[in-house]
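Continued from yesterday's entry.
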Amino acid sequence: CRFLRNEMLAMRFEIGYALGVWSEGVFSRNIVVRDCLFDSPNSTGTTVGGYECSIMTGAYIKNYNASELPAVPVAEDILFENNVFKNSFGLVARLMSAKNMIFKGNTFIDELPRKLEKDYRACFYITDSSDIKILENSWVKSPYAPNPRIIADSSSKNIVLWDNKIIDKDEEK
């Protein structure tokens, strides 16, 4: 698959509801996203929790209250493997209410400047999630994404980071 210049996020795994009034979306389970190109997604700068991102998991709730977050994960058992993420506008992924998500063997390339650079460009942000694995991924060195990192707050558990690296352009797959 190729996700080219999406105006909004390239992929959203989310539900929304107002108790007793309406609901939309379904829980996402058992998904594999492999050998895809994500090129310049979210060009309109759509934010999730205050961050522009390419991929998100989570819920939006009318009259939001932290005690109303779903008790079970919105997205579970999802694998992103051997994908190329090119020229993001912000985060690679904003993961909220996710479980057993794996990002393995992906390459992140940010070779174009943006009008409004974000200090979180090419990063992951994880909250209210568990069993997230970020393994064997490569970030191509870029002055436009100088500090790729994984940001996880204290509500997240069992985050595994292994053998991720920043590489020179000539090492790219």
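--- second protein ---
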Amino acid sequence: MTGLQARFRQDGVVCVEGALDGEASRIAEDAFRWSLENPGPAAREVLAGAPGAFYQDHANPNCLPAYRSLLYETCIADLVSSLLGTQNLWLLYEQIWLKEGGDKRRTPWHQDLPYIPLEGEDLAVFWTSFDPLAKEDSLEFVQGSHRGPLYNPTAFDARDASASMFADGVWPRLPDIESERNKWPIVSWAMKPGDVLVFHPAILHGGAPTREGQRRRSISLRFFGDRAFCAERPETGVAERDRLKKSSATADPIEQMAHAAPGTLFRHPAFAKLR
């Protein structure tokens, strides 16, 4: 086990400086630009309805041709598979964010995994920014929190920061990390273009705000490997648009996996296989 792999397993997040060379960074920025110019069905303003909302898009079903070079011709898949120690690697989905044009709010503290019917050791999120970031402007993580528990996830409600996705009592309430920062082992890194973060989707994390004159363009890729399994997710209290089990006839492979028995290998032919 490499030192980087050991740190990823222990801390749930690693920063790899200079992981992307100039050509790989250009390919990544091209993919970001394609997503910006070709919004998918999930494109929306995060925290819409209040000042400081910012743009995101994810899981565009038409993205693969535009992302093929990024996924198959750069070092990204090799880096992630080596950190996980997995022989096989699949893309779960892509995601972009854009914070610019005045003060934008911080991305609330959350875990990615509660929103996905998935669990296991071989899960990873790759993230990079195309704009240099000071440490205080970067993503922040609660070190080691990927080991549990999973909390009732934020509903990303602009009017009520404490609003949860699931009904009260289903899962433990998400702690108010921002108001008690000194009680948590929070880590972050200054980043320059080409640096990347790789983290487990169960880790608690959030993104810093941007201010007038700042811009943060970032892209992430979510992956799973050999030890990835279907997991049950609550439906109680979930808004209709966020339900995973809307219809067994849906073409969305993530929603199809939500109908599989917990513990089943997380596999579907619609997920692009990279290794």
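DSSP finds five helices and 13 strands in the chain. The helical segments are 3-11, 22-37, 64-72, 76-84, 253-257. Will compare against the first tomorrow.
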